[in-house]
Amino acid sequence: MKNLGKDIKTVLITKEQIEKRVEELGRQITKDYEGKDVVLVGILKGAMPFLCDLMRSIDLPVTLDTMCVSSYGNSTVSSGHVNIKKDLDRDIRGKNVIVVEDIIDTGITMSALVPLLKQRGAASVELAICLNKKERREKEVDVKYVGFDIPDEFIVGYGCDYAEKYRNLPDVCVLDSRVYTKA
Ligand code: PRP
Ligand code: MN
Ligand code: MG
């Protein structure tokens, strides 16, 4: 990408690699959830590209819903607290929920959200995460479906933003430090 590419240091995961991996995850989910009532819950906004791709590689009659949440972003605040900016549209009681996320970093967002969804009576709640930044984990979270384990770098693209930008990059890229160090 000519214009966005100027701010990129390196490409970490290409569009082709993402496509291949998402196909595999979709196939696995199709196998694991056959005959079950599945709701895919995408977490706005980062999950959008991954949600769009993943749902089309799942060969089951899933339904879709979205939430927009923000955690307090402070690990000293106990999990279970998540600020819901947009809630689910439909009841998840008895449903098999798969939460779809672009990235898991500290784990604070998901460690707060999963118990909440279970509390609402979901039959099961599992996570499908495209990018797993393990080194940064502060809260233990059980992730069933992982796209890629990635190093602790400043990444953007495929839904991940810096200051709300770069989400539309088709590859997962390392942002050039010039972008976030300039005054
Ligand atoms: C980012 C990302 C995850 C969350 C992960 O979302 O998309 O949802 O942070 O961080 P954690 O594991 O440390 O909790 P953000 O809150 O930036 O909103 P966005 O999806 O709109 O970018
Ligand atoms: Mn997000
Ligand atoms: Mg963000």
TrEMBL record:
Protein name: Hypoxanthine phosphoribosyltransferase
Cofactor (UniProt): Mg(2+)
Catalytic activity: IMP + diphosphate = hypoxanthine + 5-phospho-alpha-D-ribose 1-diphosphate; GMP + diphosphate = guanine + 5-phospho-alpha-D-ribose 1-diphosphate
GO cellular component terms, A-Z: cytosol
Keyword Nucleotide-binding carried by entry: yes
UniProt entry keywords in alphabetical sequence: Cytoplasm, Glycosyltransferase, Magnesium, Metal-binding, Nucleotide-binding, Purine salvage, Transferase
One function term, GO molecular function aspect: guanine phosphoribosyltransferase activity
Job description of the protein: Purine salvage pathway enzyme that catalyzes the transfer of the ribosyl-5-phosphate group from 5-phospho-alpha-D-ribose 1-diphosphate (PRPP) to the N9 position of the 6-oxopurines hypoxanthine and guanine to form the corresponding ribonucleotides IMP (inosine 5'-monophosphate) and GMP (guanosine 5'-monophosphate), with the release of PPi.
Protein localization: Cytoplasm
UniProt-listed InterPro entries: HGPRT (IPR050408), Hxn_phspho_trans (IPR005904), PRTase-like (IPR029057), PRTase_dom (IPR000836)
Pathway entry: Purine metabolism; GMP biosynthesis via salvage pathway; GMP from guanine: step 1/1; Purine metabolism; IMP biosynthesis via salvage pathway; IMP from hypoxanthine: step 1/1
Annotated GO biological process: GMP salvage; guanine salvage; hypoxanthine metabolic process; IMP salvage; purine ribonucleoside salvage
Pfam family, one: Pribosyltran
Gene3D superfamilies, per database record: 3.40.50.2020
Entry similarity comment: Belongs to the purine/pyrimidine phosphoribosyltransferase family.
E.C. no: 2.4.2.8
Source organism (scientific name): Dialister succinatiphilus YIT 11850
Domain named Phosphoribosyltransferase: residues: 16-162
